[in-house]
Each structure stands twice: as C-alpha cells, then as structure tokens.
Design a protein that fits this description.
Length: about 280
C-alpha cells in the first residue's frame, strides 16, 4: 500500500499541473495480494505532499489582481465624463503616502508572484493544446488561459512602462537617456490632468495626428489587452475557486463557470466604453 502512494493519479489533484508525476504504476500479479479493494480509491494525491502547491498562490494572487482589474475598469468608465473621471482620480491620489503602500501590497507584489508562477506554468506546459494535466474546464479553456496570459504579459509591460512612474520614467531617472525625455517628468498619465493625459497616452501615443495608423494600432492593442484580461479573469476565477477548495463538486464548478461568463460579459461591456473614451473619443 505504501508503495502505491508514491505514484499519484495521472489526473491530478485540486492543484492540477506538473506537480503530479503523470506515471501509471503497473502491478505485478503478486502485488494484487497487498491491495485493499475495500478502501476508497484516492485520486487527489499531489507530489507536493504537505507543502502548498504553487497553483494555490497563483489562484490567490489572481483573485487579488482580479479585484483590482474590476475596480480599475469601473473607474475608467468614468472617462466618458472627464470631470467625473478627474474627481475619481483626485480621490484616489488624495490618499497621499498611503497610495504607494497600497500599490505595492495590492498590485505589484501579487503581480510579481502571479507572473513568476505563470511563467513557470508556461515553461512547463508551453502553449500546447490538450495538455495532460490541468485543473478544471476543457482543454480549449486551459489553452486560452495560457494564450491570454502571454497577451496580458505583453500588454501590462507596455502599459506600465509608458503610463506609470515606475516604468520608463524610472529608467530615465537612472540613465538620463535622451531618447526617453518624454518620460522625464513621470509616466504619460498625469493625475492632475487625468483624462487629457490618458487620452494622449493611449489615443495619441505615436503621433498627435488624428487617425495615424500607429495610433490605431496601439488602440487595437489596448482593446486586445482588455479582452484578454476579461477572459483570463473569468476563467481564472472559475478554476481558481476549485484550486482553493471553494467549489468541491462538478455541479458547483459548472455553476460558477456560468456565473463567471455572465460577469465577464458585464466586465467587457464596462471595458469597451472605457476603451472608446480614451482611444477614440
């Protein structure tokens, strides 16, 4: 019996992924005498044993980042009304010295953990369709989760680099590279002129000329980023709940997935007006 426990089930446990050996043990005829067929079959062994599986950290940080994404899109919808958007930004930045602490604790630390563990998953499983080991949902859903992760990584790298003071502005302060003079004062987003700076940084990123092809390309990239973020959040919430043991039955998992799809549609409908306000308005 103890020998058998060293080889976990191929189908994995609540965590899913490559923490499972994926090996199937072949019993010799005399080994059958040692098997207790009256005991319930254990199908959720994990090679991490008593340690916390990395996918649990991936799920926990994903929920934190998903909450931020929802709030971020909700605030950005106010871009349809520039004065209201400015008022919301003023309230946020009115937090003063507390704001950098919240940014570090609720955004950048969870994001760093999530990206590191996500890259580990991509390294192990690549972008292949039909990977043997994953948690819940179809092979297509799991493949799209990894594809949207790649899109999001590129999108976030660009967005933080050009908009945030911790992006190219920080690089300029360290290097004083003349090519980055545009970021000398900070990121392209300026809290004191929230709508205008966001509009220029997104809709007129490449050129002040209206309808410039490069500007339209950046706008489409942002649209793709929003769509990828919405899917990644919806599917991640549905599967992450199972990883954390919040949904323990197939019926509960399917019910949560239906709820997440409706929520994703609502979030996308919120994201599109925000994108229009800053990219095309």
């Amino acid at each position: 019996m103890n020998e058998l426990k060293k080889n976990p089930s191929r189908n994995g446990c609540q965590c899913g992924g490559h923490c499972h050996s994926g090996q199937t043990r072949t019993l010799a005829p005399h080994d059958l005498l040692t098997v207790d067929f009256s005991a319930a079959k254990k199908t959720h062994d994990c090679a991490y044993g008593g340690h916390t599986c990395p996918r649990r950290y991936l799920a926990m940080t994903g929920f934190i980042l998903g909450t931020f994404l929802t709030l971020h899109l909700a605030v950005n919808v106010l871009g349809l009304w520039p004065a209201r958007f400015q008022a919301a930004v003023d309230r946020i930045h009115g937090l003063g010295s507390v704001l950098p602490v919240l940014e570090m604790g609720l955004i950048f630390i969870p994001l760093t953990i999530h990206v590191a563990l996500g890259l580990r998953t991509l390294y192990l499983e690549k972008l292949r369709l039909g990977v043997e080991k994953h948690h819940h949902g179809s092979d297509l859903r799991y493949w799209l989760q990894r594809v949207t992760a790649v899109i999001l990584l590129a999108f976030l790298a660009f967005h933080i680099a050009v908009m945030h003071r911790w992006g190219l502005h920080l690089v300029f302060r360290l290097t004083h590279w003349p090519a980055l003079d545009r970021y000398a004062a900070g990121g392209l987003f300026e809290p004191s002129r929230a709508f205008a700076s966001a509009r220029d940084g997104l809709g007129n990123f490449w050129s002040a000329a209206a309808g410039h092809p490069a500007n339209l390309l950046i706008a489409q990239f942002y649209l793709l980023g929003i769509a990828a973020a919405v899917y990644h959040l919806a599917n991640g919430a549905a599967t992450g709940a199972g990883v954390l043991g919040l949904t323990t039955t197939t019926a509960a998992q399917q019910r949560l997935w239906r709820i997440c799809r409706v929520a994703a549609l609502a979030l996308l409908l919120a994201g599109l007006p925000a994108w229009y306000a800053f990219a095309l308005k």
